[in-house]
Amino acid sequence: MKLLLTFFLALVTITLFAQKDFQGKAIYMSKTTMDMSSFGGRGGGQMTEARKKEIVDRMKSVLEKTFILSFDKSSSIYKEDEKLAAPTAGASSGFMGMMAGRSVKYKNTKDLVALEETEFFGKKFLVSDKMETPKWELGSETKQIGNYTCFKATMMQDVDPTDWTNMRRRNDDKKEESKKDSSNVVKVTDEIEMLKQIQVTAWYTPQIPVSNGPAEYWGLPGLILEINSGRTTVLCTEIVMNPSEKEAIDAPSKGKEISREKYTETVKIKMEEMRNMFQNRRGNSGGRRF
After folding, report:
1. Quick one: pLDDT at residue 159?
2. For the chain, what are the domain ranges?
């Protein structure tokens, strides 16, 4: 019975996919866990559980988000669901919001065009990416996500040097780990480090035969319904095939045109300026530097 249901759903999906004006919509929940030892200087490790919970709650709007992927046969638009976006609360989340506003990610897997319309410190950018086919390793392991049978795929991915979620404190245990594999660790500060590469695990379903997925992920023989990358998990919670209200899947055009490499360098420079500013403030007030 389960096999017949799976076959029927696949047949329906393929029929819909064959339509000229085919479009789908997938809702994703993104959740990131925090390494609390990376916050609060050397004393961060002695934070009470109540204080840790308070910080996580204040940053919930940054750590937990809902995204919508609108896709057709070869292109997609991925953006945060503004209706469900929680208002930023507290100094931590407010600072994150000031640094980077909400973005719109566009992919065209046929023409190999990837663009991101984003905002950083009040300035709009149109960031272009090189779309090289991801080097996924396809596995035979399967699992069920909703009504869809998904297959596992993995790959090693370079870490975005501006992604604070992959930073970690250099405590004694991690220093020993770093010594064992120093080639995959980059020093951020005297106390903070980041891996150069992490393993990404994807779960995709051939029942929706589009080579697309959330954020920058694509390149598999089916829609990606789940991504596990570092401390972040992105999980599809709803799929609508040929929604009644279709969205125009057009390439974004607003903002200063810039390559991903130059944009990353711009962000790193600004982050360094901010880090030095906070260090100077703490130094002037007699506090311990981060």
Report:
1. 86
2. 20-282
